[in-house]
């Protein structure tokens, strides 16, 4: 996936997470951002963290956004 970030302001990047196989019960997945080539110190992105909750249905999707 690619998205041009531009030279000013903030750009929202959306990520889709898919549950590939059905499971017998609900599934929760924690996520958080971490520095790599982009860093918080350089104001390259806004920190994000949370939990995605799936009902357990195969193919179910959730979207998270990082600015």
End-to-end separation = 15 Å
The main pleated sheet reads as: 2 strands, antiparallel
Average pLDDT taken over every residue: 91
Number of individual domains: 1
Shape: elongated
Spatial ordering of strands, largest sheet: 1-4
* Computed Rg: 15 Å
Report the helical percentage.
under 10%
**Structural class, judged by helices and strands?**
mainly beta
H/E element string?
A: EEEE
- Quote the beta fraction: 35-45%
Low-confidence runs (pLDDT<50, min 5 residues)?
none
Number of helices: 0
Count of extended strands: 4
Helix and strand topology:
Elements: E1 13-18, E2 27-32, E3 49-54, E4 61-66
Task: Please characterize this protein's 3D structure.
- With about 70 residues, the chain is mainly β.
- The protein has one domain.
- It is built from no helices and four strands.
- A two-stranded antiparallel sheet has the order 1-4. Strands 2-3 form a two-stranded antiparallel ribbon.
- About 0% of the residues are buried.
- The model has no long low-confidence stretch (mean pLDDT about 90).
